[in-house]
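Supplementary Methods, section 5.1.

A reviewer requested that the exact input to the structure prediction be made available. We therefore reproduce it here, unchanged from the version used in the analyses.
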Amino acid sequence: MTKRLFITLLLVLCVLPGARADEGMWLIQNLNRALEKNMKARGLKLGAREIYNEEAGGLTDAVVSLGFYCTGSMISDEGLMITNHHCAYSNVAALSTPEHNYLEEGFWARSMADEIPIKGAPVYFLRKVLDVTDEVHALQAQFRADGKPAGFRRLSSIVEKKYADGDRMVSLASVWGGDMYYLCFYDEYSDVRLVSAPPVTVAAFGGDEDNWEWPQHKADFAIYRVYDHDGKPLKPRRRLAISVDGYTKGDFTMVIGYPGRTDRYAPAAEMNEDVNVVSPVEIRMRAGQMAIIRKWMDRDPDIRRKYADHFFSLTNAAELQEGQWASMKRFGVIERRREEEKGMQWALLDSLDRLFDECAHIEAQKAYYRECLVRSMTLGQTLMRMGGFGRGNVEQQRKLLAQGLAQTDARVEKEMLAFSIEEFLTHMDEEYLRPVHLELRQRFGTDYKAMAQWVWDHSCAAGFGEIPEADVVARYEGPIADDMLYRYIRELNVVDLNSKEDPATLNELRHQYAQVRHRYLHRKGVMQYPDANSTMRLSYGQVGPMRPWDGVYTHWQSTARGLREKYDPAKYDFCYPTKWKYLLPPPYFPVNFLTDNDITGGNSGSPVLNARGELIGLAFDGNKESLASNYEAVPGYNMCVCVDIRYVLWVIQYLGRQEYVLKEIS
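The structure derived from this sequence is encoded token-by-token as follows.
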């Protein structure tokens, strides 16, 4: 090896994911001695077996997954579970009515009898993990020898069925492109009830303007109660102790949760497609959608109630993509991955580069299809569900239509329709346009507002906004297949947008790449963790400041002083309820804090624990400079934004006045 090549490889390894021992979302069942040693060197006072222990139990018995989209933790012996408010946002929005708008007013139960059941919000406790790698590999080999497909769905169906364990949910997980397989066993509880939820202007103070920023001043928490299968408050195997002693710079922190997905074993060609082909389309489209919804939300409180959940999802996704795009370019993530790839298999990389290059244009077309037809109109989703009942079931379609109309506003929907029609007909290739789209162009040329009005007038939504909702529904006779709005949205589905791709080959090459990269780094002696995949993980780090840009230094803690400084009654996101002005903590009181724990989506609501395993806060956000972390955790820039548990307790006591909750969590 030449001296120049050696130096190049050394520089690459210095920035590879996994090169810093403190980075990583480590599989909870694989906390080995080397990892334990690293954590203790940073300050951990516990042993690995005290954290995760299938036989004797550990801290992880207090950590739950909320439907594998967020994380929560048990904080009482009577089933109280705490998570982020933004994880509970959809549930709180669904419970809200014009008479009781729990998003705006908050919800504070006065006793167990007042706690409200939540539909479709199960929680899962991890109980056991088995390494079934050899068994799955043998099954794959047998299928291939027999000339049968051996896809993940088929494999998981067979293995999960074999290991079915009574009422427990069994789930197969693949890591490193299929190099290893684990089987996870979960206890599931579906009886969950809302206990506490601050007003959204307190929970999300600063709104999307402060999202991914620092400092923040959010009370991002909500409390549920989990009930057992006998209808009694669940007595968990473990509850987290709460520490009000605080923390300081350099203190050890540990986050346990269910991070959803990362792609840190992705090839440079895939990163390039995401950042430079798909993201620009989605960022621009979502900016247009948000501008329309925000305009109407600011005009009408009832529209804000109806669209709050959808708008929240849009803003979070849009800012994430914008931040990722900027961070990837700023830190040269794609270029670094290409440099690393010089030491890997060229034949594999050539094939990947060629396939991703061939797919670039069709991926952009698919992005326009998703944003214009799938994710644009809220009412469009209702029509698609109506179409699922076919021609005969008019009564069921009427029920869905009534529900859809009640949850939307005609003014918003028509403007969103005009926006989507213009973008769709302007950017989609001619070969993908169906008769309904060509008919619109023939009738109206480029008058997209006229197109939208004509489609609306020839749909089951016609009259919505001018006549009572019940009358609109009553006159609906179907069939939905003849509805012009349904046809506009639905007809493109008959076009195979994947026809120019070979997804099976591409997926196989991606899996091979992950395996090659995993083995390549292993040979280099790099401690590794697999990509996040909604299995339980642990990350560790320290409380500390951030230096986001040259010459800029930020403190590691925000205080209630910022709540006073940012308050602005003219701006919705910075205007908390009037009574909260008189209940604010003293200016020095801790509100949010920073750590360098490695997190991603799905970690929201995860407990932030100190060196003794005590709860000091909840993870709720990352920083804008960390948003390349889907592909690479850039050292020194990956931060975790947390709400201080002392601020949570203050809000419960003084704004919620929930003495019974405080007494229960003592």
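The longest helix spans residues 268-299. These observations are discussed further in the main text.
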